[in-house]
Amino acid sequence: MPVTLFDLIVVGVILFSAVLAMIRGFSREVLAILAWGLSAVIAYFGYPFLQSAFEGFLGDARLAIGGAFAVIFLVALVIFSFLTTRLADFVIDSRAGVLDRSLGFVFGLFRGLLILVVAVAFWNWLVGDAQSPDWITNAKSKPVLDSLAAKLETLRPGGNLEASSLYTEQERILAMADKKVVAIVPDTDRAS
Predict the structure, then answer these.
(1) Where, per UniProt, does this protein localize (predicted)?
(2) Does 158 have pLDDT greater than 80?
(3) Is 92 contained in some domain?
């Protein structure tokens, strides 16, 4: 199997992620993820307090929820980003800076790999191998990413689903049974 364009893209994505994380440092990467997560939690619990103000302004409840969530999320993210930048700069400028950047590189490798695994899982679900171009199906990295995507699939709720299906086998059987029951049971409203 020769190296294909897909293999080069895989190497490029992983290296780009690793170099970016090395430049930023492990502490900044982890603190950024923490800032995004905390901002989302604060927005989730805080949007009801602003929802009524946005409803009066926007007129639609769903838009009000989205607007209140977005405003709280962005304000919290700006505040946390400011704090995490200061803390990460302190770590990078300290004696631990080299270790921080080295760990950042390793973190970036794993992040790049995770991004690719999720992308391949989505591609397999959306397109599948039958419609994939040869430069993807013949790539040396594709079987490895497929294997990791299958393992990742088992971690999600209901994780033993086929990649190409939205239903489990049990749900299919229940759906077929419901159709048969509907077909067998007579409609009593029409009889009277």
Answers:
(1) Membrane
(2) no
(3) yes
Identify whether 151 is part of a domain. Answer: yes
Kindly report, residue by residue over 9-67, the tens digit of the pLDDT.
999 999 999 999 999 889 999 999 999 999 999 999 998 888 888 888 887 888 888 88
Contact 103, 17 (CB under 8 A): no
Token pair belonging to 34 = 């923490």
For the stretch 82-136, pLDDT in tens is 999 888 888 878 888 889 899 999 999 999 999 999 999 989 888 887 888 889 9
Contact present, 142 and 6 (Cβ < 8 Å): yes
* CA distance linking residue 22 with residue 36, whole number of Å: 20
Structure-block tokens of residue 144: 């490895």
**Per the structure block, which two tokens stand in for 153?**
């699939």
Instruction: Say how many C-beta atoms besides its own lie within 10 A of residue 109's C-beta.
Output: 17
The identity of residue 21, as a single letter, is A
- Tokens 């929820």 locate to 65
Tokens of 11: 């190497």
For 41, 47, 55, 147, 166, the CA distances from 67, given in Å and listed in that order, are 15, 9, 9, 40, 31
Query: How many domains in the chain?
Result: 1
Q: Residue 13 domain-assigned?
A: yes
Nearest of 128, 110, 150 to residue 29 by alpha carbon: 110
